[in-house]
């Protein structure tokens, strides 16, 4: 069993004399276990087991030697791997750092050491770093410690990455066929990937211009027969391993602009928004459960402001849309259609997408591949940087568990390249402090975290 304990020390910023010390213990979440909890269906989709192991091992340092500092207590549930909505990251550290980011500390290599049954990790925060009230801390990946959770972006940091062994340019692990099996079901827009909503079943959706939503499911004929030696690889429509089923959910109007106006929420519903009327102020919101293939919700609201006709989403009883005209950008409306706030002045490049069941994201028009992220309470615009991932859409996958997810590059209407990725600032541990630590500009801070195998 892995156990962990933390020691937080505050020192006088001038004399260096120790002023306070706090010792606490943590729970270990399922984050690390989930990195290795693969299912047989992945193997049949061309996943290289050797490739996954190569990029996931050794766990230390890449996936464990980062730290996140929180402004509130976090429920001690091992399945709490992504931070809960509304919590704020008030400090973070991963590798060496000497920059001006007021939240980011630096790794202390001299005091970090690998022991016979574990590791001791140390990070330092100068007088101008992480000045706040700290109530909880978590271990994370080095990349996550460098990045922080929904904190202002800094060059060279990554909120999401493809699975690798320490290099953002590492070759990738492809999660599924790069080309969909059937793209010619009638006329209208092409099929759009909706995710692996059940184990081994990959779902696509399409508007075929017939007042219905087409749902396509791809799977293997006999997933239970797969083994670690299975060599099915990339499956095509002609393969005996392939099974395809097509369903239709009827409505009284098209699911128009489907490619930019829908999300898949945490309950496996497709939530689609149609805009019409003067200034696109009439928003019709339809919900289709992609498991039961039924229309479960249909309502119309009138928006208080004119909005653009593309890149609209309804999430957590909030509608997100780009307003038109001077001062346009992403705005939030409540469930009655009333304007709530202008979130940012940037517009969205493409459709919104959900991940982790609690978060919504969308690429936005800023350099280095901008990404708008909201948990329904906090909002940040980050850049994904040079990992060449800014066009990617994030999907939950039934054969993967957090922090793993599927990153999909929707290059064309008939070609969806899918890779295994992960959210870098996950919580590998939850360490709620017995007493809050108040860090200010008069003090330096040292955090020591010891993990042991017992």
Provide structural commentary.
The protein is mainly β and 454 residues long. It is 5% helix and 43% strand. The chain is globular.
Put the structure in a nutshell:
The chain is mainly beta. Helices cover 5% and strands 43% of the residues. A hairpin with a 5-residue loop joins strand 21 and strand 22.
Helical region count?
A: 4
End-to-end Cα distance, whole Å, is 5 Å
Profile the largest sheet.
6 strands, antiparallel
Identify the overall geometry.
globular
Decide which structural class fits the backbone: mainly beta
Mean pLDDT: 83
Helix content: under 10%
As a percent range, the share of strand residues is: 35-45%
Poorly predicted tracts of residues: 178-187, 226-238, 386-390
Radius of gyration: 23 Å
Count all strands and give the number.
Answer: 31
Characteristic terms for this protein:
4 helices, 454 residues, six-stranded antiparallel β-sheet, single chain, mainly beta, globular
Element layout with pairings:
Elements: E1 2-12, E2 18-25, E3 27-28, H1 31-35, H2 40-44, H3 49-56, E4 66-70, E5 89-93, E6 106-107, E7 113-115, E8 118-125, E9 133-140, H4 142-147, E10 160-162, E11 192-198, E12 201-207, E13 212-220, E14 242-250, E15 262-264, E16 269-276, E17 282-289, E18 294-302, E19 313-315, E20 318-322, E21 330-333, E22 339-344, E23 353-355, E24 359-364, E25 370-374, E26 379-383, E27 393-395, E28 404-412, E29 415-423, E30 429-438, E31 443-453
Antiparallel strand pairs: 1-2, 1-31, 3-30, 4-5, 4-9, 6-8, 7-8, 8-31, 9-30, 10-29, 11-12, 12-13, 13-14, 15-16, 16-17, 17-18, 19-20, 20-21, 21-22, 23-24, 24-25, 25-26, 27-28, 28-29
């Amino acid at each position: 069993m892995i156990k962990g304990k933390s020691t937080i020390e505050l020192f006088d910023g001038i004399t260096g004399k120790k002023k306070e010390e706090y010792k606490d213990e943590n729970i270990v979440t399922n984050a690390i276990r989930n990195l290795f909890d693969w299912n047989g269906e992945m193997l049949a989709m061309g996943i290289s087991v050797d490739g996954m192991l190569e990029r996931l091992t050794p766990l230390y340092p890449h996936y464990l030697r980062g730290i996140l500092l929180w402004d509130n207590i976090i429920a001690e549930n091992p399945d709490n791997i992504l931070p809960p909505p509304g919590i704020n990251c008030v400090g973070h550290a991963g590798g060496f750092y000497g920059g001006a980011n007021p939240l980011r500390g630096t790794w202390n290599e001299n005091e970090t050491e690998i022991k016979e049954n574990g590791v001791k990790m140390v990070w330092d925060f100068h007088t101008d770093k992480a000045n706040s009230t700290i109530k909880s801390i978590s271990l994370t990946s080095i990349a996550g410690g460098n990045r922080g959770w929904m904190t202002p972006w800094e060059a060279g940091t990554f909120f999401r990455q493809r699975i690798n062994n320490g290099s953002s340019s590492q070759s990738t692990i492809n999660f599924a066929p790069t080309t969909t099996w059937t793209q010619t079901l009638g006329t209208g827009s092409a099929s759009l990937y909706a995710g692996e909503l059940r184990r081994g079943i990959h779902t696509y959706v399409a508007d075929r211009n017939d007042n219905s939503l087409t749902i396509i499911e791809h799977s293997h004929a006999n997933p239970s027969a797969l083994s670690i030696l299975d060599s099915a690889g990339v499956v095509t429509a002609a393969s005996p391993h392939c099974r395809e089923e097509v369903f239709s959910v009827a409505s009284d109007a098209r699911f128009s602009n489907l490619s930019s106006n829908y999300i898949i929420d945490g309950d496996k519903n497709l939530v689609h928004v149609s805009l019409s009327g003067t200034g696109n102020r009439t928003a019709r919101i339809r919900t289709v459960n992609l498991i039961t293939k039924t229309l479960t919700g249909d309502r119309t609201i009138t928006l208080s402001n004119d909005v653009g006709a593309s890149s609209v989403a309804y999430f957590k009883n909030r509608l997100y849309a780009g307003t038109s005209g001077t001062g346009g950008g992403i705005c939030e409306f409540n469930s009655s259609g009333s304007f709530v706030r202008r979130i940012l002045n940037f517009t969205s490049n493409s459709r919104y997408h959900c991940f982790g069941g609690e978060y919504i994201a969308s690429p936005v028009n800023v350099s280095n591949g901008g990404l708008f992220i909201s948990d329904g309470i906090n909002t940040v615009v980050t850049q994904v940087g040079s990992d060449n991932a800014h066009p990617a859409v994030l999907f939950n996958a039934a054969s993967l568990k957090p922090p793993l997810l599927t990153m999909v590059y929707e290059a064309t209407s008939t070609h969806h390249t899918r890779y295994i990725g992960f959210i870098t600032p996950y919580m590998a541990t939850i360490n709620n402090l017995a007493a809050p630590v108040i860090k200010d500009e008069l003090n330096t801070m040292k955090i020591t975290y010891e993990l042991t195998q017992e």
